[in-house]
Every structure is written in C-alpha cells, then in structure tokens.
Amino acid sequence: MIERNDLHGSTGVVVDAKKIEDLLFQHCTETINKFAKTDENKGVYVFSLYTDVTHGSFIIHINTEEALEKTANRYYENYKKKLIETNDSFYDRSFEQTKISLRFSEGDFDFSFEDLPDQLNDIMSLYYCINLKELNYSPEQDTIIPKSLMDHQLYFIGVFPEEKVNDEEFLKIVQRQKSKSVKEQLEFWLLQIKSNKWRTDNNVISKYCKTDYHAYECLVNIGSGLLPYIIEKLNEIDLSEAERYICEELINDIKS
C-alpha cells in the first residue's frame, strides 16, 4: 500500500464513496427482496443499517412485531424472576415498558445480516486495513482509494449524503429549543417521542431520520434542572404509561 499526494501515473480501479454507495444500495435491495419472500415477512416495522466506520462494515437489521412480542415476553419473564430474587427496582417494569425499551434495540432483533457480497466485502476489507494500518491484505487488482474516503465523517456522508443535511437541520431545532424554558423543552421533546410512532414530517425525529434516543438525549443533557418538572409531570393524572416510563428513566439517568 502506497500513500500518494496525486494520481499521476497511477493505474488501477478507483473506489470512491459513490462506488460504495451503489454496492451498498444493491446489497440492501437484494436483502430486502430475499426477506420479502420468507414466511417471516409479516408485520415488519423497522429496517436498520448499522455502519462501523472504524472497521469498515455494514450490518442490516430487520425486525417484526411478532418477533418483538416474543423477545419482550422473554425479557419480561426474566425481569419478574430477577425482581423477586434481587428486589432491584431496575427489574420492576411492565410488559409494555419492556417492549418499548426493546423496540429499537438492534442487538435484540431476530433478523441480522452481516455477510457482505464479495465485491463490497473486498473493498471494505481494504478500507479496514488502511484505516487500522494493518497491511496484511492484498487486493487481487491495484485499487485506488481517495484519501478523503478515509476521513470518518466524509466517509459517512459519502455513503449517506442526505444525513449531513438532516444533522444540520435537527441541530438547528435542538439549539432553538435550548433558548426556551426547561418546562417547554420537556413538553416539546416528550411530544416528539410520543408522536414519533406515526412517522410523519410533522414530527422532527422522523422528518430528519433521527430516533427517540436523540430526543431523549436532549432532555438528559439539560441536567438536574429538569428534575422538578419531571416530578411535576409524573403527577399528571392523564400521563400515558409510555410517558411515565420515559420520565422515570430520565430521573435515573440524570441522577446517575
């Protein structure tokens, strides 16, 4: 492997972000089509693509409502046993709370696809070696990789170009909320989490391709000043079980 400042006199296959994006899109499309033909293709609610920019890998995660129900039930039964054994409040959760916590937990999804097609795998193996400076991999043909691709941020944006715009727009909303009162921030982010299940552009989480955790993190970052308003919220009679669970988790995370 040779690092050069220009490509004058160089020959070989050029692998840029567009090349990876095209191969990844093809891989995702083929995976979806294969899954669609299986008996498990019922009640799919999430498709997730995990990107490891350090090691150069992609993992596709898919989950269904039926699989989530089974996983949540397994955890819930275990939590009940643990609560009796330890009396630890951590395990004191309803089935619905357990289900909410697992809904987007990729590690607990039933369907994960780690294997990459040969061409994409060869490129990512080379990326891995360059990024971690492990020069024990030799591609079958001379390969030219732009140095900009090895920048983690540029690499990520290259594969998901719309993500940069989404990040910038979401950050603007976060900054605007910070200028408001603590109580207003709590109400805003709780509403966004609550309404995110409808996945409409009226919800800033779904509009900018974020997750409930991004909104939750905004609340945690407020710190101890949020606690009085959370306690006030918990005293509301019409508070939903999901909102109550979020508020209780916020208290634990802020105090920890």
TrEMBL record:
Pfam families, per the entry: DUF4303
Protein name per its UniProtKB record: DUF4303 domain-containing protein
The species this protein was found in: Brevibacillus panacihumi
